[in-house]
Design a protein that fits this description.
The structure holds two protein chains of two kinds.
Chain A lengths: L2 H16 L2 H28 L6 H31 L3 H5 L5 H29 L12 H26 L4 H4 L2 H9 L10 H8 L2 H13 L6 H32 L12
Helix pairs in contact in A: 1-5, 2-3, 2-5, 3-5, 3-6, 3-10, 6-10, 6-11, 10-11
Chain B lengths: L4 E12 L2 E12 L3 E5 L6 H8 L7 E6 L2 E2 L4 H5 L2 E5 L10 H11 L5 H11 L15 H12 L6 E5 L7 H17 L3 E5 L3 H7 L2 E6 L2 E6 L4 H4 L5 H10 L1 H4 L3
Parallel strand pairs in B: 3-8, 3-9, 6-7, 7-8
Antiparallel strand pairs in B: 1-2, 1-4, 4-5, 9-10
The chains are: A mainly alpha, B alpha/beta.
């Protein structure tokens, strides 16, 4: 692994973001809008629901964590899409760059860009809607970690799918978080789901985070074992997604897809 | 492998379904040598170059760059190459300087800042350093792509139609820079072009490809007469239209 080559992948993303308002604004704008929307909704719910229950840490906190997960996933895929949009695969993959270096560069770029969104969300949620992350105590660290790992896994999977099926398939990637969210129990307990959806929830790492979050808000304790299971699942998905990316890359090398990527497929 | 050999290709073959794109070709490129890879559209030139760049896996055969096996030591071997191709522009949303810096890091260029300034000067790109690559003219883009291709002083430089779409004056300028590179940096160059005048001017040796096979090889100035043709262009047309008449000569 060469740090210089990983840095090159990150530097490209930095240059692009630095020089483009259209890339800077989405880093925090949609997350901020989400915070405002859900902030007011939780305030409203606090006025109509039975007194004593605070929706801010239950719902606004959950939305903040979910948005963090989305930023991480999209941070990886956005960095990859820059190569798709600028038809840069041939140039990039004809360099000494190794796949682990390329993927590491995408992940580190995503970490850097996601922090911007996280900070914006925290500022709005804390100062406008009085959400205190201290409500979750130290558990906020494993919560963020599990979501971060799962975001990386889905980001790498998204990149692999676009590499395999061509530039137009990026439209399959954007809705992935929306497809996962009903199963992950972001806004409601997993027990509310029908049995078949609960089975799926059990293999989704975020469900362990949001179940834990609700337990804390309800005054209970979080099962460390459940969070460890969530983290292990997320790490497993990273390996699976990375393995799939490598498989797709090798397929692209065999078929000549990288050299003729803009054709989308070779038929 | 001889120390003078930069590139050694042995029995390279690539098949797409029923189409044999490259059919067991073997050739070498030596230091200070500019080798022209010629042939009609679809002859297999770009497929061969893509395999040497390791963005396409061969079905059979070996590629060694300065004696390093591309299949088993890809990153080390590729570190010794670079390329420019008309169909592989640099990202248009980055400036010339940003592109060169990023590719300099990817190729692990030492003293990068110094090298970037040297290349910007060498290719008259100083006034375009902070201009986005996408807004440059074709000639300026080609110069920037060539600067990228020479970032790591590659022992093996692959140029796929580098002067296509350039005016004759700019094309001549590009040829002069490549020749200077080959002489000064001890590099070998593999060059594809459809401009036979250009090939005759710059190439020390040419390989004619047709249907994925090397039909002819030799000095571009002597080869036409050896095959009863007046010019390299006539020979090219014969290769394109009647490859069988030249096979086995």
């Amino acid at each position: 692994m060469s740090f210089g080559r990983i840095l090159a992948v990150m530097l490209r993303q930095y240059y692009l973001i630095r020089g483009s308002l259209a890339r800077v604004v989405p880093l925090f704008a949609w997350a901020a809008v989400d915070m405002v929307l859900w902030g007011f909704l939780t305030r409203y719910l606090n006025t109509v629901a039975s007194p004593g229950f605070n929706f801010v840490p239950a719902l606004l906190g959950a939305v903040l964590l979910w948005d963090f997960f989305i930023r991480i996933m999209q941070g990886v895929t956005m960095a990859f899409f820059e190569d798709v949009w600028s038809r840069n695969f041939l140039n990039v993959f004809a360099t000494p760059l190794l796949i682990p270096e390329y993927v590491s560069g995408l992940v580190l770029s995503s970490m850097a860009t996601s922090v911007v969104g996280l900070v914006a969300m925290l500022l709005i949620a804390t100062f406008w809607f009085h959400l205190s992350v201290f409500v979750y105590g130290l558990m906020v660290i494993p919560f963020l970690l599990v979501l971060f790992l799962f975001g990386i896994a889905l980001g790498i999977l998204g990149c692999a799918l676009v590499l395999r099926f061509g530039p137009a398939s990026e439209w399959f990637i954007w809705p992935i978080p929306a497809l996962v969210s009903p199963f992950a129990g972001v806004l409601y307990p997993v027990s509310m789901l029908p049995q078949w959806m609960q089975w799926i929830a059990n293999i989704l790492p975020p469900s362990y985070v949001f179940e834990g979050l609700r337990k804390i808000v309800a005054g209970g304790g979080v099962s460390g074992g459940a969070l460890v299971l969530g983290a292990c699942l997320a790490v497993g998905y990273i390996f699976l997604a990375y393995g799939y990316f490598v498989k797709v890359y090798r397929h692209a090398l065999r078929t000549g897809l990288i050299a003729r990527y803009s054709a989308e497929n070779l038929s | 492998m001889s120390a003078s050999k930069i590139l050694s290709v042995g029995g390279l073959r690539k098949v797409y379904g029923d189409l044999v794109a490259v059919d067991r070709i073997s050739f070498d490129v030596n230091r200070h040598e500019i080798v022209g890879l010629l042939g009609p559209n679809g002859a297999g030139k770009t497929t061969a170059i893509n395999m040497i760049l390791s963005i396409l896996d061969p079905d059979e055969g070996t590629i060694h760059i300065e004696g390093i096996d591309l299949a088993s030591e890809r990153s080390r071997a590729i570190q010794r190459t670079n390329f420019a191709a008309v169909y592989a522009p640099l990202p248009g949303n980055l400036t010339v300087f940003q592109n060169l810096k990023i590719f300099g890091l990817l190729y692990g260029v030492g003293n990068l800042s110094e090298r970037l300034e040297e290349l910007l000067k060498m290719f008259d790109l100083e006034k375009f350093r902070d201009k986005k690559y996408g807004v440059l003219s074709s000639g300026e883009q080609t110069r920037a792509s060539l600067a990228k291709a020479m970032l790591n002083r590659p022992p093996l430089l692959l140029l796929d139609e580098p002067t296509a779409s350039l005016d004759p004056s700019t094309a001549q300028d590009i040829r002069a820079r490549v020749r200077e590179f080959s002489a000064r940096e001890a590099g070998g160059v593999l060059w594809t072009s459809h401009n036979m005048y250009e090939v005759e001017e710059i190439c020390d040796r040419v390989l004619f490809l047709s249907h994925g096979r090397i039909l002819l090889e030799g000095d571009p100035k002597a080869l036409p007469a050896e095959h009863g043709k007046r010019t390299l262009e006539e020979l090219f047309i014969a290769v394109a239209r009647e490859p069988l008449s030249l096979e086995g000569r």
